[in-house]
Write a structure and sequence with these properties.
This protein is of the alpha/beta class. 36% of the residues lie in helices and 23% in strands. It is elongated.
């Protein structure tokens, strides 16, 4: 029997799902043992490689998460909030490492994921890339070095199909800025300005979201004061960088104790 960890991919037909499947199929460090889709999806019952337009991979697309997780050591999950919460409980039962790249999670969703993390390793991040996580670290340091006379704006751009705003990465950056300032993001956050909004309040952390075309992901953190600006930027040009980060995370998680981790832990930042 193979000693390589077996990995299940949720949302197999999605852009991230297909990217992950291709990378795992080509990897010598893990093996694909499951591909999940929602009940009624056209791919159910097909070999996932064939469904993707390629050669067979020997893994049939299923809608039975419990069965798939039972034979897995890891789950990589870029799906939807409700699905990720349900998957977290099932992955914990199977003691499989659960890597969550899903965004748009509400506090009550995160609380349920936290509960599952008492029994298994969960690695959750709004963005899996090394560059973005370095940007998060830099944002916190810059925010700590500058006082509230410097206005902070997080500007993000994504493809037209993205359903949540601000993005998970933008919220990570806003949280880092708030921690650097020593404030709660909930009390400083301002997004969706429209109409006569009045002057900006000192200390606010603003968010702006752009949606269009096939933009993979662009994030700026702007610190603006009288007469000068500092802009920290990350631009993603290839979706596979997120897949590489998720794969790194699921391998790292194999040797960790149960708990709720993020990419800063995985990258040693």
């Amino acid at each position: 029997m193979s000693i390589l960890p077996g990995i299940v991919i949720t949302g197999a037909s999605g852009r991230m799902g297909q990217t992950l499947i291709k990378q795992i199929a080509a990897s010598d460090k893990m093996r694909l043992v499951g591909a999940l889709e929602r009940t009624g999806h056209a791919w159910i019952g097909q070999d996932v490689g064939v469904a993707m337009g390629g050669a067979p991979l020997g893994v049939m697309v299923s809608d039975d998460a419990l069965e798939a997780f039972a034979k897995a050591q890891g789950v990589i999950d870029f799906s939807a909030p409700a699905a990720s919460v349900a998957f977290s409980a099932l992955a914990a039962q199977a003691r499989a490492v659960h890597v969550i790249g899903t965004t748009g999670l509400e506090p009550e969703d995160i609380a349920k994921i936290e509960a599952a993390a008492h029994h298994a390793v969960i690695i959750r991040a709004g963005n899996m890339s090394l560059g973005v996580n370095l940007l998060v670290s830099l944002t916190k340091k810059v925010a700590a070095a500058l006082d509230a006379d410097w206005d902070i704006e997080v500007i993000e751009a994504h493809h037209r199909h993205k359903v949540d705003a601000p993005s998970g990465t933008a919220l990570m950056l806003g949280q880092a800025a708030a921690e650097g300032r020593g404030v709660k993001l909930e009390s400083a956050k301002v997004s969706g300005r429209d109409g006569i909004t009045g002057a900006r309040q000192r200390g606010n952390i603003g968010f702006s979201a752009i949606r269009g075309g096939d933009i993979i992901g662009e994030h700026d953190v702007m610190f603006a004061a009288e007469g000068e600006r500092i802009v920290l930027r990350h631009i993603a040009t290839d979706r596979s960088l997120f897949a590489r980060g998720a794969i790194r995370a699921v391998l790292w998680g194999q040797t960790q104790k149960p708990g709720h981790y993020d990419m800063m832990d995985v990258l040693g930042l």
